[in-house]
Design goal:
The protein is mainly α. The protein is about 55% helix and about 10% strand. The chain has helices spanning about 1-30, 80-85, 95-100, 115, 120-130, 140, 145-150, 155-180, 180-195, and strands at about 40-45, 50-55, 105, 135. A hairpin with a 5-residue loop joins strand 1 and strand 2.
Length: about 200
């Protein structure tokens, strides 16, 4: 309950304080390329329930949803505004809405698409889906260079499934085992420092 209270208060304050920035970013996205301001994608949440995550759109509008659900290196689908948003993780800010709605937490295992959750080992799947997914977690911080690494791979999805995903699952499981409010505060602080550094 303490974690949920912290999530609610921080997300609400964050949305209020960041409202001018969010509006400016939304206008930039709209002027930069045709399409909606927000990108919504089905992810797997707590208890295996599906929800649609909110993010600022950073790629060209693709109603058909073609292509892999991965961003690989200098992906040609990324817009000019999108490159800036991704560098500073500003595209993730609308997920504060998902935190308010109770579908996400500020800190927790990042929510995956069903395609990759289906590949989780059963014991890890049950553990990771026992908590709300988060905006950030230790696994996300350890793999901030994921897109660049996939861009160098001859088979990006295979590299993700066989190398990156297992490593992220192990770190996320460790977080779930030892999660405390103090842990969340430290992860949030590390995330902010990395974001400000543009890494």
């Amino acid at each position: 309950m303490l974690k949920r209270a912290f999530d609610l208060s921080a997300a609400l304050v964050g949305l209020v304080l960041l409202a001018p920035l969010l509006l400016a970013l939304a206008l930039w996205i709209k002027l930069d390329s045709p399409g909606p301001v927000l990108f919504r994608q089905e992810r797997v949440g707590r208890g295996g329930r599906l929800f649609r995550i909110h993010k600022f759109r950073t790629m060209v509008d693709d109603p058909a949803g073609s292509g892999l659900p991965l961003t690989v290196g200098q992906d040609a689908r990324i817009t000019r505004a999108g490159r800036f948003l991704r560098r500073y993780r500003l595209d993730e800010l609308p997920q504060l809405i998902d935190v308010l709605r109770g579908q996400m937490s500020l800190v927790g295992p990042r929510p995956e698409v069903p395609r990759y959750v289906a590949l989780y080992p059963e014991h890890l799947r049950d553990k990771l889906l026992s908590v709300r997914p988060g905006l950030t977690d230790p696994a996300s911080l350890a793999h901030l260079d994921e897109s660049e690494r996939l861009g160098r791979a001859s088979d990006p999805e295979r590299t993700y499934v066989e190398e990156i995903l297992p490593a992220k699952l192990r770190l996320s499981a460790q977080y779930v085992d030892h999660a405390r409010l103090a842990t969340d505060v430290r992860v949030l602080w590390r995330t902010l420092c990395r974001v400000w550094a543009g890494r």
